[in-house]
Write a structure and sequence with these properties.
The chain is of the alpha+beta class. It is built from nine helices and four strands; from the N terminus they run αβαβαββαααααα. Helix content is 50%, strand content 8%. It has a four-stranded mixed beta sheet, covered by helices on one side. Helix 2 (29-41) packs across helix 7 and helix 6 (148-168) packs across helix 8 (209-219).
């Protein structure tokens, strides 16, 4: 049985199955990426709900694994050289899981890097912009009388949807016929933009037919449907 005692986070979220990957997350766009990937890969894992509404990601135990204080984070008891490894930042975790299994990334080196660039596209552009749309459209930011910030993030989100729509023209998935971590990194964010953030009309989502069809395909995948609900809200 794996010994995870070196990770203080396990004192707050004890591992019932220490030989499985430990996932510390919630059902946010960043959080569901990892549960979806784990479901797609068929890797055994134990999910732990980090209640961000109660600021649990800012507790000393969570910060000991992720000093950035954001979900998700994982511990893999069977990391490189068979030693446990803790990781944070969803893009890095996606790439790690893909490398660990040899799945969800193309074997060809050039296409592998092409896949990674679209993961970075989500991390550097889509996630931050869509998140700001959510803040200014649905949350506290909607009370701000000056609507220029909302307009700026709306317009940038439309631009990014256009980039994604152009990429998906004539393609089933971002990498063509290959469903990869690039798709997983983006699905939750696009879903939240038009669902949870209620910004479908704001960004003119229906103008982007290729994105809409890709999202529909992605959401029909059983692993995606299951991963979107893990870990369940407490």
């Amino acid at each position: 049985m794996a010994d995870l005692s070196a990770f203080p986070i396990t004192t707050r979220w004890p591992a019932k199955h220490p030989d499985q990957i430990q996932l510390y997350s919630a059902t946010t766009p960043n959080g569901v990426k990892i549960s979806i990937a784990l479901e797609e890969l068929g890797l055994p894992y134990e999910p732990h709900l980090v209640n961000i509404s109660k600021d649990e990601s800012w507790t000393p135990e969570f910060l000991s694994l992720n000093p950035n204080g954001k979900i998700p984070a994982i511990i893999d008891p069977n990391g490189p050289d068979g030693k446990p490894i803790g990781l944070f930042e969803s893009g890095a975790i996606l790439l790690y899981l893909a490398d660990k299994t040899g799945l969800l990334v193309p074997a060809d080196a050039a296409r592998r890097y092409e896949t990674i660039q679209w993961v970075f596209f989500q991390m550097a552009s889509v996630g931050p912009m869509f998140g700001q749309v959510g803040f200014f459209h649905k949350f506290a930011g909607r009370e701000i009388a000056d609507k220029r910030p909302l307009e700026r993030y709306r317009d940038e989100s439309r631009r990014l949807l256009g980039v994604l729509d152009g990429r998906l023209k004539g393609r089933k998935w971002i990498m063509g016929n290959d469903y990869t971590i690039a798709d997983i990194s983006l699905l939750g964010w696009v879903r939240n933009l038009i669902g949870f953030y209620e910004a479908r009309d704001l960004v003119g989502f229906d103008d982007f037919a290729n994105v809409a069809a890709w999202l529909e395909r992605g959401l029909t995948r059983p692993a995606v449907q299951k991963g979107l609900t893990i870990p369940a809200k407490g």
